[in-house]
Amino acid sequence: MEKKHEKRWYVAFALTAIVAITGLFWDHIKCATPTDFLPESAINGADTAWILASSSLVLLMTPGLSFFYGGMVGKKNIISTMLQSFICLGVISILWVVVGFSLAFGDSAVTINLGGTKYGLIGNFNQYAFFDNVDLAPHAKIASTIPFVLFAMFQMKFAIITPALITGSFAERVRFISYLLFICLFSIIIYTPLCHAVWYPDGLLGSYFGVKDFAGGTVVHMSAGFAALAGALVLGKRKDANHQPTNIPFVLLGTGLLWFGWFGFNAGSSLAANGVAAKAFATTTAASAACIMTWIFFDRINGRKVSAMGACIGAVVGLVAITPGAGYVTVPESIFFGFISAIVSNLMMYWKKLKSFDDSLDVFACHGVGGIMGMILTAIFAEGENASLLHGGWEVFSHHMTALVLVAIFSFFGAIGLYKLTNLMIPLRVSEEAEEMGLDLSQHNESIG
To answer: How many CB atoms lie within 10 A of CB 181?
Structure first.
């Protein structure tokens, strides 16, 4: 199908071959200074075991997301929608090893000087390219009790699922090879700078603005949510946006896998087997549970039936909302996170103006709005260093809100630029005939029997 675009697959194959062969002959330059690393004797066995388990849990979230999204679309597009999530396991993993990890966690290559101090915007692309210097020795400033290669792999799973989250916004109408190009551009140009700015020790958002993002409210959910909104706007509406979800059991299964994996996502972000991990485990459970119940009750008082779909969406919104504050707030506070985020996200999901954009699977209302709510609530309730609003940190709160606006602008307009660039190289949207046929057949020559 659509044979005129087949030449681009030869280019994609050639690029993959170049990467595979280049790794064999890569001149391993030692850019990191020896003082960055601790001896291997500093490795803590319990911490290492927990982050190994957490990395596996986070990896499971991407297949979970494929079921979650796959069950929501029409029968002609189940396989294509699931594959768009699943393929990130391949594409982003290779990209992360080659250059992504270096851009995200290499020493700051691009900085901004504020008050005489330099703050990082993005890492040195060459420092950890092809995993140079990424070995067993723990990094003194980033993860001091686990092998550095394990930290890199844990962070890889976050990088994998972020572009996969975006796919729900343009489901049922995107060309597969264009999508592959877009997620590569998104990961390099939007995800890695945000990751560096928030989580690297001297990053602009984390160090200067004092952003508290325990496990990815800005880096993962806001970036994906605003990129999803941009995608819905750029690609336009589907020809037939009125369909019923094909497989609700898939949605239930996907939600269960996501919730299970989210314990690694949040509790693993402590980077240690400690009390903070236990707290994050508890707050993650409580917030999602509160969000489920609030969502279905709020649906009912607004005249809608209690549905399995609503319960699943509520669970995911709760997980999203608690992500930035999981290690910083108490369990009772996390229940409030779930309660208020369910109401706001639910209102946004049914807001007619947002519906008119045809965000197919309501990615922005769930992940974008959920991430925003989580970051605002974290700035209000978080305990510990850099006190939040309720603990006397008005300046920290105002910086936090400024950073949220900057992230929203960067993610939204940056994504629009990348969609337009992708579309110049390869048309983003499939033809009307291909859309009518369904992406399963037109893009992959497969179908649900």
So the answer is: 20
Tokens (6 digits) for 303: 């005249």
Is it the case that residue 250 has pLDDT exceeding 80?
Answer: yes
Cα–Cα distance for residue pair 315/313, rounded to 1 Å: 5
pLDDT of residue 386: 63
At 426 the pLDDT is 92
Question: DSSP characters for 400-415?
Answer: HHHHHHHHHHHHHHHH
Q: What is the pLDDT of residue 1?
A: 45
pLDDT at 225 over 80: yes
For the chain, give the mean pLDDT: 92
30 located within any domain: no
Domain annotation covers residue 242: yes
How many Å apart are CA 149 and CA 138, to the nearest integer? 8
CATH number of the domain at 399, please.
1.10.3430.10
As given in the structure block, the two tokens for residue 187 are: 């990961």
pLDDT at 210: 87
Select from 440, 441, 415 the least CA-distant residue to 70: 440
The mean per-residue pLDDT over the stretch 300-321 comes to 96
The residue segments making up the domain with residue 107 are 37-444
- Judge contact between 448 and 79, C-beta under 8 A: yes
Contact partners, residue 411, CB within 8 Å, separation at least 6 = 190, 194, 222, 223, 225, 226, 227, 230
Work out how many domains the chain is built from and give that number: 1
Q: How distant, in Å, are the alpha carbons of 3, 164, 195, 310 from that of 172?
A: 19, 14, 30, 21
pLDDT tens-place string over residues 26-58: 766 555 566 789 999 999 999 999 999 999 999
Question: Can you give the pTM of this predicted structure?
Answer: 0.94
Quick check: is 17 in a domain?
no
Is 449 within a domain?
A: no
Bridge partners of 120, per DSSP, are 111, 203
Q: Which string of b and e fits 238-276 if b means at least 16 CB within 10 Å?
A: beeeeeebbbeebbbbbbebbbebbbbbbbbbbbbbbeb
